Inverse folding.
């Protein structure tokens, strides 16, 4: 990173301020421009120093981090707040994000986590400023207005173990890299999502479940961008909750609002749905512009797919073939499988050999 990130540290404990200053001193692209012991001192220093990122503790005596972040967003809107706390409860996270914080770190954290969070927040804020400036140029403004809302592609299968998540990840990566699309991948298997495993991402404090309190209370998704992870494969990712019981927090109504917001800011929203039918999966399928259904050549898989197509009223529509290669994302050199344009929305021809095998399978007598 060529630009230097100016950081202001805010913590009422002197040892913590010194420790954070030493940690950031090892980062060549970061500079600690000041340190404050209270919220009021933070506001004075921020107005004078104009930092890029404010690293702030949530618990302080005179004015806590949440109240300080609210005032900071009004007085120094160019400063992005990274909140720190020993409490990792969802309520602290929600209140911090509503106050204007862009990231939330639970103490203790490593130096790698600290530097990565500061860099991500800085890049995200700079990207937002760039998007606000670029539309003033005629060509870009015209292209943005003509693009319209993005498309939602849902990957679904009534049965697990058919490669649904692998295909969803590969399609998202291929669309972003080969078709130059702005893509977000949503892990819609809220109980047992595997997108994070395939992409080597950790859903801690960065899953859709943490966004739900804001959506349910205010009906808005203003902090949605905070929970999207920028992956090195040039896609953005919204992960499933880290534990199964947290899936109950994701309601179909809130999920629809999230998908609408993502559709408005991305060319393509890829959703990896859970195996089986539930309220949230039905909400995704109702909103999807394209549904990718997957099965294996087994009697049980074919039967379940037939029931699903009949239930959705899709059994009379002409299908589009989606071919699966032998390579998987994360194998070899960590590159996605070779993309095919018919896999990305254009009509492709089904494999004749697969058709003959399916016909032979149907003609076998029942045991």
């Amino acid at each position: 990173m060529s630009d230097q990130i100016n950081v202001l540290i805010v913590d009422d404990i002197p040892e913590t301020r010194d420790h954070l200053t030493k940690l950031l001193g090892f980062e060549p692209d970061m500079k600690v421009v000041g340190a404050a012991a209270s919220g009021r001192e933070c506001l004075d220093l921020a107005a004078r120093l104009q930092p890029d990122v404010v690293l702030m503790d949530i618990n302080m005596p005179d004015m806590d981090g949440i109240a300080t972040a609210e005032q900071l967003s009004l007085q120094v809107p160019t400063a992005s707040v990274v909140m720190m706390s020993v409490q990792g409860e969802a309520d602290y996270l929600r209140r911090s994000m509503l106050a204007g914080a862009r990231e939330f770190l639970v103490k203790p954290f490593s130096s790698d986590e600290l530097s990565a969070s500061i860099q991500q927040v800085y890049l995200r804020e700079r990207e937002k400023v760039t998007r606000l400036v670029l539309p003033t140029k005629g060509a870009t403004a015209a292209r943005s207005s003509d693009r319209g809302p993005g498309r939602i592609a849902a990957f679904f299968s009534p049965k697990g173990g058919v490669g649904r998540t692998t295909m969803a990840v590969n399609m998202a990566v291929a669309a972003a890299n080969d078709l130059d699309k702005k893509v977000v991948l949503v892990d819609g298997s809220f109980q047992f999502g595997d997108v994070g495993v395939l992409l080597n991402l950790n859903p801690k404090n960065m899953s859709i479940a943490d966004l739900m309190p804001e959506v349910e209370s205010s009906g808005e998704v203003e902090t949605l961008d905070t929970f999207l992870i920028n992956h090195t494969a040039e896609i953005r990712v919204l992960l499933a909750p880290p534990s199964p019981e947290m899936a109950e927090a994701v309601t179909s109504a809130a999920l629809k609002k999230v998908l609408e917001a993502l559709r408005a800011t991305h060319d393509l929203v890829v959703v990896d749905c859970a195996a089986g039918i539930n309220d949230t999966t039905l909400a995704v399928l109702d909103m999807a512009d394209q549904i990718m259904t997957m099965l294996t050549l087994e009697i049980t898989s074919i039967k379940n797919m037939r029931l699903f197509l009949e239930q959705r009223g899709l059994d009379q529509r002409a299908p589009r073939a989606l071919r699966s290669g032998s390579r998987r994302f994360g194998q070899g050199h960590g590159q996605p499988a070779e993309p095919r344009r018919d896999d990305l929305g254009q009509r492709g021809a089904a494999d004749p050999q697969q058709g003959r095998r399916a016909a032979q399978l149907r003609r076998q007598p029942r045991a």
The two ends are 65 Å apart (CA to CA). Residues 111-133 form the longest helix (23 residues). Residues 7 and 32 are 5 Å apart (CA to CA). The domain at 148-344 is CATH 3.40.50.300 (Rossmann fold).
